[in-house]
Write a structure and sequence with these properties.
The chain is α+β, with helices and mostly antiparallel strands. It has helices spanning about 10-15, 20-30, 40-45, 90-105, 120-130; strands spanning about 1-5, 50-55, 60-70, 75-80, 110-120, 135, 140-145, 150-159. The chain has a single domain, classed as 3-Layer(aba) Sandwich (Aminopeptidase), CATH 3.40.630.30. Strands 1, 2, 3, 4, 5, 6, 7 and 8 form an eight-stranded mixed beta sheet that branches. A hairpin with a 2-residue loop joins strand 2 and strand 3 (about 60-70). The longest helix has 14 residues, at about 90-105.
Length: about 160
């Protein structure tokens, strides 16, 4: 497995991985509307603070992650996705995050990585916790999706 830079030519593949409105919101929050389009993706990744990556296995794309510059010393992991449900539960999400942390370590002056995750995404929370992320209860927020209230946890770890 390796993490490779994501490019505009990968945008259609990423859109195909987001099958419905709920998955779109869980993955991208309020940043993207559904149906997700390559134009939305390309506009987003063109932002200077966004560093997007694909996770590949045997040269096949299987996941996506972003490092988002919050400040000179902090990056946030965003839009973490292991695309196929058949690939989940096999440690590939762990490897995806681990590789992204390696990328963050290579950025001069970065000493903290944070992320936001919905509280009902217990598998992701377990993955992040196993990699040293801790929940910051004072930064808990809520988001609203189709009449439901979703709790959004903030987690961080020091590099």
């Amino acid at each position: 497995m390796e993490l490779v830079p994501f490019s505009e030519s990968d945008a259609a593949q990423l859109c195909a991985w987001i099958p419905n409105e709920k998955a779109n919101f869980q993955w991208g929050g309020p940043t993207f509307s559904f149906p997700l389009t390559p134009e939305q993706i390309c506009e987003h990744i063109a932002r200077e603070e966004v560093k997007p990556y694909l996770l590949t296995h045997d040269k096949e794309p299987i996941g996506y992650i972003e490092l988002f510059r919050v400040s000179d010393s902090e990056y946030r992991l965003c839009r973490v996705l292991v695309a196929s449900p058949a690939h989940r539960g096999k440690g590939w999400g762990y490897r995806l995050v681990e590789l992204a942390l390696e990328q963050a370590r290579m950025i001069s002056k970065v000493y903290k990585v944070s992320l936001a995750v919905f509280a009902h995404n217990t598998a992701a929370i377990a993955c992040y916790s196993s990699l040293g992320f801790v929940v910051l209860p004072e930064l808990t927020k809520t988001r609203f999706f189709n009449g439901e209230t979703w709790t959004l946890l903030r987690m961080e770890r020091w590099l």
